[in-house]
Write a structure and sequence with these properties.
Helix content of chain B: over 70%
Order of helices and strands of chain A: HHHHHHHH
Distance between the termini of chain A: 30 Å
Oligomer: heterodimer
Number of strands of chain B: 0
Strand content of chain B: under 5%
Shape of chain A: globular
Number of helices of chain A: 8
Largest sheet of chain B: none
Order of helices and strands of chain B: HHHH
Distance between the termini of chain B: 43 Å
Chain lengths: 235, 75
């Protein structure tokens, strides 16, 4: 199965894909922004401030999703000793970190008109801040350790430890009394959000996913070329 | 209509600043990543160009090196 993960085989795809992903991202983002800022209705309680949801929620979802992927690939890298898994994790982390920061900052901006404060130490916000710290440690570890094997070990440990925080973030609104409302979108049960708001939320989530894919592909290509640069030095 | 979109019942500053921060974050990440990629491609091309005939032959035997060079020439 791992033969499909060989860099030499997938570089032909990853080097060509970014331009198509960028085009698709611009199209989906334009539709998403039009829906989110103009076409979607205002909320009866929060008025227009509800529109912040269209950047805050997808950013939070994707930062959580990317960190889960980091943990899965890190476990894979430990078990199967496949270095390409750590290359994939390393390439995913920057966009996950940026999405985490976006979720924190837009959440803070949304908090002011809704809760009356820029910041509250509630369970969801605090656990998201902890996730940002894990992302920061993960990215720093790649820079600090010059020995590649040591860097892989340390970053994998950080990703696996940080993954404990992911279910805490997800269920924090159920386990503790927080300012955040419980989940409005459920896969297994009824969704309490109206379709007129669900469509822009879906479009913005699709746009953000495409952006993280674009950054991943560009970063992965950069990492592969770095490896090949070292290969040329050894010739 | 335009004033309504800009002011958003007094919530415009919050909404626009959240969207602006997101888009600026996207643009910064995209350009930083793009610059890193271009830098590595250029480094690869210059290293490849400085190889002697025998080493060039060995390097060309790997398809991925040819792929990198073909993408570099499009910069």
């Amino acid at each position: 199965m791992f033969k499909y993960f060989e860099p030499n085989k997938i570089f032909a795809i990853t080097s060509r894909a970014p331009k198509y992903v960028l085009f698709l991202f611009i199209v989906v983002l334009s539709i998403g922004l039009t829906e989110a800022l103009i076409l979607s209705p205002e909320d009866y309680k929060q008025s227009h401030s509800v529109r912040i949801m269209y950047v805050h929620v997808p950013a939070a979802w994707i930062s959580l999703g990317i960190f889960s992927c980091l943990a899965i690939f890190s476990i894979g890298s430990f078990i199967f000793k496949n270095k390409n898994f750590s290359l994939i994790s390393k390439s995913l982390a920057p966009s996950g970190f940026v999405f985490n920061i976006i979720a924190l900052v837009t959440g803070s901006i949304w908090g002011k008109p809704t809760w009356g404060t820029w910041w509250a130490w509630d369970a969801r916000t605090t656990s998201m801040l902890i996730l940002a710290l894990f992302y920061g440690m993960y990215l720093l570890a790649w820079r600090i350790y010059e020995d590649k094997n040591q860097a892989i070990k340390v970053t994998s440990m950080i990703a696996i430890l940080g993954a404990i925080n992911v279910p805490i973030i997800k269920f924090s609104v159920d386990w503790w009394n927080t300012l955040h409302q419980p989940a409005s979108i459920n896969v297994l049960s009824d969704t309490s959000i109206h379709i007129s708001m669900l469509i822009p939320l879906g479009m913005m989530t699709a746009a953000f996913t495409l952006f993280s894919l674009l950054i991943f592909l560009m970063k992965y290509n950069t990492e592969l070329i770095k490896v090949k640069n070292k290969g040329l030095d050894r010739l | 209509m335009i004033n309504e979109i800009i002011s958003m019942n007094g919530y415009g500053s919050y909404v626009w600043s959240a969207f602006s921060f997101t888009l600026i974050g996207f643009a910064t990440l995209y350009f930083v990543t793009k610059l890193q990629l271009l830098k590595e491609q250029k480094r690869f091309a210059s290293k490849f160009g400085s190889l002697n005939e025998e080493k060039t032959k060995a390097a060309r035997s790997q398809n991925i090196n040819i792929e990198i060079l073909s993408n570099t020439s499009k910069i």
